[in-house]
Amino acid sequence: MRILSVRYLAAVVLSLGFAVQAGAQVLLTGTLKKARDSGAVAIGYRASSIPFSYLSTRGEPIGYAIEICRALVDAMGEEVGRTLRIDWVPVTAESRLDAVESGKVDLECGSTTSNLERQKRVAFSPTTFVSGTKLMVKKDSSIASFRDLLGKRVLVTAGTTNEKTMRELSEKFRLNLTLVVARDHADAFAQLAADQAVAFATDDVLLYGLLAENKAQGSYAVVGEFLSYDPYGIMFRKGDAPLASLVDASFRRMAEDRDLERAYERWFLRRLPSGISINLPMSPQLTTIFQSLLQKPE
């Protein structure tokens, strides 16, 4: 009788374990359920947001934001109990918010500013980088500040906060700017090189990245004061509490393990695959943000 009782108890415990596991699977919702069912996570990447999200010479998405997103996919796989593949989806500055909202991509991994206007439509991870709008000009240019742009043609990238910043700046200071809207950062840089405008306005780190990737530091300069404040984050769908909790926990773990710091060093202080380094030390603002992730939430 005792043997039967032990076997019976073991069977009960085993069945309860299966029930708990099945219950956990049933409880999955939103993006995590989608990932478990499909076995994949759709990542939106940018083609020329150097060094955050861009294409290698082999046509593969690489960069600082891409590295962080790969870690998030690993964490999602652990959460749903299966290895997840990545389905790469190209997005632009104009299409990226719609792609997240519609479910076309699950994580947008680029150089996207988190602000109140965008937070009405999508959710953001903790801050991954802090940047701001500056101007790129040719080195023989007389432009040293936005105040030197009166009546000039200035390049911006479609769908960026920089475009809005420059329109507001032009109106506020009566600069009468003619904004030339490029389809992406690479296009804007090409147009600046072809003298289609006197300056290209976007986040300073993206300007440094373009110069490094094109080995053009000797021909161009990044000038002027910061014209905006732009904290970057990884985008995902709004209202997805389980994914938001996983993203937040993953960032805290990456901060504790120094993975965020090491990723920064790889993409901003060491040589890029092109052989050139941006050589941009971490700002005091980003250092403070990463340190704050070490504090346990109340």
Automatic annotation (TrEMBL):
CDD domains, per the entry: PBP2_GltI_DEBP
Superkingdom of source: Bacteria
Gene3D superfamilies named among the record's database cross-references: Periplasmic binding protein-like II
Keywords: Signal, Transport
The Solute-binding protein family 3/N-terminal domain, residue ranges: 40-271
SUPFAM superfamilies membership: Periplasmic binding protein-like II
Signal peptide range in chain numbering: 1-24
GO biological process: amino acid transport
Name of the protein in question: Amino acid ABC transporter substrate-binding protein
Species the sequence originates in: Rhodoferax koreensis
